[in-house]
């Protein structure tokens, strides 16, 4: 009887095992399908945000034939070179995450103007002396050094013009404050100054490097999140979480930039690869080594994700964007 029972039980057991495997296979396929669908949804949303930014740039920047035409042509040339549009996308996505009480597009374009001015000036012969930006000749190569300098100046001032033209009252004041603070001598410009001073320096410290990246890079990403949060109606505590996110996300972004400069090629980057090493710049890779830099980028990304998780609804698009940044190739 026992033997019989065992014999009759084996097919039943086998059937159960096969059924279990089939269910697991279905679950695995469903999981893979869900992952693929989520990725497609994220990619489509990211593309939609980028297209909004491109339309905003085209509509809100003075036409190329505005007098003096050479200046406005140079402004549009530098702005329309493409790129990731990370900062304006962060503005739009963060505003959407909080319900969008005011149109964030002019503020997103203002931030991109200010960011692009810093790139134009960075590329000048007196600074990084670079010939390529976003896969195209830099402004001073396409036009001339004086035109590039003035185009950068114009983009900087135009960013504040946009805020003044499109926002009123307390919101206008708050947006202007955040943008001015991020671009100040204590943040963006101060970080750039420290970056220049650190060139060829053999005894640079981790503290000095963090100062450069927290102010040159993280301050602008933080501003993008805060400006989006202000347009969306975020509370003070939520703005605090966005500030934490920007700090960690900015450090991760810059560390990955340092890694890519050391490991990627010029065609992939859209700018001259290996420039940091040639200039003797202090970078995370130079100071900590490649593997340690990668680990630190992952740690900073995790900290940014932890801050985002505390926002209403978990901010899924922003969370996915932060995760994707860790694996970017350019």
Provide tags for this entry.
single chain; 330 residues; Farnesyl Diphosphate Synthase; two-stranded antiparallel sheet; 15 helices; globular
Question: Can I get a quick summary?
Answer:
By secondary structure, this protein is mainly α.
Structure commentary:
This protein is mainly α and 330 residues long. The chain has one domain: Farnesyl Diphosphate Synthase (Orthogonal Bundle). 75% of the residues lie in helices and 1% in strands. The protein contains 15 helices and two strands. A two-stranded antiparallel ribbon has the order 1-2. The longest helix is centred in the N-terminal third of the chain and has 59 residues, at 2-60. It is globular and about 45 Å long. The termini are far apart. Residues 1-8 have low confidence and may be disordered.
Under CATH at level 1, the class stands as Mainly Alpha
**Uncertain parts:** 1-8
Distance between the termini: 70 Å
Give the name of the CATH superfamily. Answer: Farnesyl Diphosphate Synthase
Total strand segments = 2
| Rg for CA atoms | 24 Å
Beta-strand fraction estimate: under 5%
If you average the pLDDT, what whole number results? Answer: 88
- Distinct helical segment count: 15
What structural class do you assign from the helix and strand content? mainly alpha
Helical content, roughly?
over 70%
CATH architecture: Orthogonal Bundle
**Strand line-up across the major sheet:** 1-2
**What's the story with the biggest beta sheet?**
2 strands, antiparallel
Number of domains: 1
- Spatial shape: globular
The CATH topology label is Farnesyl Diphosphate Synthase
SSE succession: HHHHEEHHHHHHHHHHH
């Amino acid at each position: 009887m026992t033997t019989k029972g065992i014999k009759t039980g084996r097919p039943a057991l086998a059937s159960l095992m096969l059924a279990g495997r089939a269910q697991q296979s279905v679950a695995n396929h469903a999981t893979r399908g869900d992952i693929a669908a989520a990725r497609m949804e994220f990619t489509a949303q990211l593309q939609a945000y980028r297209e909004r930014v491109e339309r905003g740039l085209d509509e809100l920047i003075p036409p190329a034939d505005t007098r003096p035409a050479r200046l406005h042509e140079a402004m549009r040339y530098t702005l329309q070179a493409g790129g990731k549009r990370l900062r304006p996308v962060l503005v739009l996505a963060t505003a959407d995450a909080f319900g969008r009480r005011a149109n964030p597009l002019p503020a997103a374009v203002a931030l991109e103007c200010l960011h692009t001015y810093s790139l134009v000036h960075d590329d000048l012969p007196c600074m990084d002396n670079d010939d390529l930006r976003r896969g195209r000749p830099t402004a001073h190569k396409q036009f001339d050094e004086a035109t590039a300098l003035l185009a950068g100046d114009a983009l900087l001032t135009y960013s504040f013009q946009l805020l003044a033209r499109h926002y009123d009252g307390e919101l206008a004041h708050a947006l202007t404050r955040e943008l001015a603070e991020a671009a100040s001598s204590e943040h963006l410009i101060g970080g750039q100054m420290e970056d220049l001073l650190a060139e060829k320096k053999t005894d640079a410290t981790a503290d000095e490097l963090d100062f450069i990246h927290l102010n040159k890079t993280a301050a602008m990403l933080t501003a993008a999140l805060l400006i989006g949060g202000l347009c969306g109606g975020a509370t003070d505590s939520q703005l605090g979480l966005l500030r934490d996110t920007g700090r960690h996300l900015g450090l991760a972004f810059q560390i990955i930039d340092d890694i890519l400069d050391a490991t990627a090629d010029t065609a992939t980057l859209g700018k001259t690869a290996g420039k940091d090493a040639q200039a003797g710049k202090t970078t995370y890779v130079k100071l900590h080594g490649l593997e340690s830099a990668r680990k630190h980028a992952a740690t900073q990304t995790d900290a940014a994700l932890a801050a985002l998780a505390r926002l209403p609804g978990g901010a899924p698009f922003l969370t996915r964007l932060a995760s994707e940044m860790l694996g970017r190739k350019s």
